[in-house]
Amino acid sequence: MQIDPKKQSKQDNYKLLIGSVLPRPIAFVTSLGETGAVNAAPFSFYTVVSTDPPMLSVTVNRKPGGVRKDTARNIAATGEYVIQVVDMDNVEKVNQCSTEFPPHLSEAEAVGFDLLPGRKVKVPRIAQSKIQMECRLHQILPMGGSEAEPNADLIIGEVVWFHIGDDLYDQGRIDTVKLDPVGRLAGVTYSKLGEMFSRPRLGYEEWQKQYGRKS
């Protein structure tokens, strides 16, 4: 199958992307609205962009007409937010937060999450998450669409504080099995941690010995 993305709809391209780029980690983002309500929403267009300083990116698609979603609007206004990791213990309530609540209502409180204060930012974090990363905005880049109506906001932020469950942390590393992370697949399907395997990263001479052509 050969497909020219310019000859099909935005929705059709979206389906191909989410069916190809997977499993995707989920950023569960809390931010503060102008009324003080704690907005909480999951986004699976999410990755690491830098380690020095530690920086993360989250892409928030816009509503029809190029209108920013609450999360992007809140972050642009306050410059602060928290990213929580989604795991098997909290995914049910995280999914409920994908419901489009009115801006003046807090999704986090509505679904029964407990809030804890941030240490470096004013935005609260979710108690029922094993990892929380307090972030300050570095840059928002409108992406795609047109200048008048962008398709999405690429939000890049610096992690200014990590909160990690004590039982997960071991000599600077995080225990993946205990974290039990959840990822997104296509449609409304999620994935959990399955079989794990390791592969060494070889130096070139080692690679030649193991995989190079034999004369």
UniProtKB/TrEMBL annotation:
GO terms for molecular function: FMN binding; oxidoreductase activity, acting on the CH-NH group of donors, NAD or NADP as acceptor. Signal peptide: none annotated. Its cofactor is FMN. Residues 19-176 form the Flavin reductase like domain. InterPro entries: Flavin_Rdtase-like_dom, Split_barrel_FMN-bd. The keyword Transferase does not apply. The keyword Flavoprotein applies. Keywords: Flavoprotein, FMN. Belongs to the flavoredoxin family. This is NADH-FMN oxidoreductase RutF, flavin reductase (DIM6/NTAB) family. It comes from Kroppenstedtia eburnea. The lineage of its organism: Bacteria, Bacillati, Bacillota, Bacilli, Bacillales.
